[in-house]
Amino acid sequence: GRPACDLFTFVDDERVVGPTEELTWQAGHVLAARQSYVGVSDAARKVREASQTAGAWAGAVVHIHSEHGVCVLTSEEKWTKLKDIIQKWLTRLNEGNTLLSHKELMSDRGFLVYVTRNYPAMIPYLKGFHLTIEMWRG
Predict the structure, then answer these.
(1) Beta strand 13-17 with 6-10: parallel, antiparallel or unpaired?
(2) How far is residue 133 from each of residues 13, 75, 98, measured CA to CA in Å?
(3) Does the structure show a pLDDT above 80 at 44?
(4) Phi, psi (deg, nearest 5) at residue 76
(5) How far apart are CA 32 and CA 44, in angstroms?
(6) Exposure string for 35-67, b = 16+ CB within 10 A, e = fewer
(7) What tens digit of pLDDT does each residue of 58-91 get?
(8) Most distant CA pair in the chain, distance
(9) What gap in Å lies between CA 62 and CA 70, rounded to an integer?
(10) I want to staple 35 with a disulfide (CB 3.0 to 4.6 A). Which of 40, 84, 89, 111 is the partner?
């Protein structure tokens, strides 16, 4: 047998994946028909052709390599922003700044949480941000 199609959802956006272009298109058609039945409109302008190099979606870029299998990465732009955020806080702490902007910490933590969805091994390192943001609670 062949693998079945699957559906991935991020907030209000879906992506259908499947073993062949035809099966993927059929699964997308079934999804659109079921959504229409319950009153969810299908935005035809957002429909993409089936592809093994579909590009970024929900913060992830998926690459399919014959030797390595499926690799999930983030865009170069987001990776650079991640490094800049980490470097900014390391610099401030190394300079001895103890008054940190709560709003800025919250904003940067939000971006870090977004990026770590692609890199689960980074999740434990967010604990420092979480603890710093919540330390005012006593």
Answers:
(1) antiparallel
(2) 31, 27, 13
(3) no
(4) -60, -40
(5) 10
(6) eeeeeeeeeeeeeeebeeeeeeeeebbbeeeee
(7) 777 777 666 766 677 888 899 999 999 999 999 9
(8) 61
(9) 7
(10) 40
Q: Using the predicted structure, report yes or no on whether residue 19 has a pLDDT greater than 90.
A: no
Class of residue 117 by CB neighbours under 10 A (exposed 0-12, middle 13-18, buried 19+): middle
The beta strand positions in the chain, using DSSP E, are 6-10, 13-17, 61-65, 69-73
Instruction: Output the CA angle 31-37-38, nearest 5 degrees.
Output: 95
DSSP class of 5: P
Q: Report yes or no on whether pTM surpasses 0.85.
A: no
Query: Does 99 have pLDDT greater than 70?
Result: yes
List all residues 6 or more positions away from 88 whose beta carbon is below 8 Å from its beta carbon. Answer: 108
For residue 126, what are its two tokens? 């967010």
CB proximity list for 57: less than 8 A, separation 6 or greater: 10, 13, 15
